[in-house]
Every structure is written in C-alpha cells, then in structure tokens.
Amino acid sequence: MRNSSTRIRLIEPADAASIAEHRVRDVEAFRPWEPAQPADFFTSEGQAERIDRLLAGYQAGLVWPGVVLADDQVIGQVTVGGILPQPHLRRGSVGYWIASVAQNQGHAGRAVGLALQTMKDELGLHRAEASTNLENLPSQRVLRRNGFSPYGVAHSSILLDGSWRDALLWERILGD
Ligand SMILES: CC(C)(COP(=O)(O)OP(=O)(O)OC[C@H]1O[C@@H](n2cnc3c(N)ncnc32)[C@H](O)[C@@H]1OP(=O)(O)O)[C@@H](O)C(=O)NCCC(=O)NCCS
C-alpha cells in the first residue's frame, strides 16, 4: 500500500539486514521508548529468526507484521499485534518505529494510516488500539493525526530503560 512517499508491506526474510542495521544505529535513541532487547536482536541472523516467528504469527492470524518503506528502502516497522478476530471483538493493536535517519518527515503518520486501512479492509477489524509512553509526544502526535483518542492510563505497565512506566492507552473505532 502506498500513501505519498510512504509504503507499507508485509515483512519478508530479506528485510532482516536493514532492520538490524537501523536498530544497531538507534539503540541509544530508542532506549527511553522501547523495551531492552537481547543481543541477537541486533544481528541479521537474530532478526531473520524474529521475522520467521512474525510470519508464523501472520499465518495463524494473530499478527500483521509490516515494514515501512520510503523510496523502496526499509525505514521502520508497523505491526498490528494482539489480533482478536472473533465477531464480537475484531480488534488489534498497532505498534511502530521509524529509524532516526527518516524521522520527522511524516512517515509514521502515513504508515499508521495505511495500517488502519489494512486493519479495516483486509483484516476486517472493528477497533484499533495503541499505547504510548506518557512522554512520547511524537508518537502521540502520530496517533492523534490518525483519529485515535486517549482513553486511560495503564499504571506501571512496561519496563523501559530500567523503570516501570505508565502507558497512555489509545483507541480508534474503524467501522462496523
Ligand atoms: C514515534 C516515531 C514512530 C515517530 O515517527 P516519525 O516518522 O518521526 O513521525 P511523523 O513524522 O509522522 O510525526 C511526528 C510528529 O511528532 C512531532 N514531534 C517531533 N518531535 C517532537 C517533540 N519533541 N515534541 C512534540 N512533538 C514532536 C512532529 O512535529 C510530528 O507532529 P505533526 O504531525 O503534528 O507535525 C519515531 O520517533 C520513533 O520511532 N521513535 C522511537 C520508537 C518509538 O517511540 N516508537 C513508538 C512507541 S509507542
């Protein structure tokens, strides 16, 4: 799917090297916002194993694992996780990151918009959820721009950079 200069597609095994390269470069920049990861997260081999697991989850209908592309280069990931396809639930949770070299150009905002279209049209979901750190204002801007509203705070919800942090919870209703 394409929106202006941003495209998303399902992740592929061949994306492992690009993702590892970004995550090695951005390890310090992402430390306040993303959980600590094991050493193999920062290698192509470790990312390839992770991609295999994501694609197995996709085959099982539990996750839609995407990459974000600009000029056909992988610049980040957008993932719909926690998919509950049951007719009375039909919800999923959106997560994303954009490499520091490509930030503040609108890519996350457009990628989340494309992911919401996928959730509605391809996955048939009714409700989208997300969570952000209370201080992660860029991520909150991305969600607000895509019609999400904050609906609560989950206390002591995620271990980030050595301390348990509260999470701001977001929702967007996609349709019927
Ligand atoms: C959060 C993140 C995905 C945003 O990606 P991005 O491609 O830079 O996002 P966009 O360019 O689409 O939008 C960023 C918005 O934040 C705003 N912004 C940037 N720095 C800001 C700051 N310090 N304070 C407040 N707003 C800020 C931009 O102006 C823009 O808002 P606008 O749409 O109103 O102009 C990226 O910074 C990232 O990956 N961070 C590290 C990992 C992370 O936080 N993941 C999300 C976890 S919930």
From TrEMBL:
GO cellular component, one term: cytoplasm
Superkingdom of source: Bacteria
Residues of the N-acetyltransferase domain: 6-175
Key words of the record: Acyltransferase, Transferase
Keyword Magnesium: no
Listed GO MF terms: protein-N-terminal-alanine acetyltransferase activity
Family indicated by similarity: Belongs to the acetyltransferase family. RimJ subfamily.
Protein name: GNAT family N-acetyltransferase
Lineage: Bacteria, Bacillati, Actinomycetota, Actinomycetes, Kitasatosporales
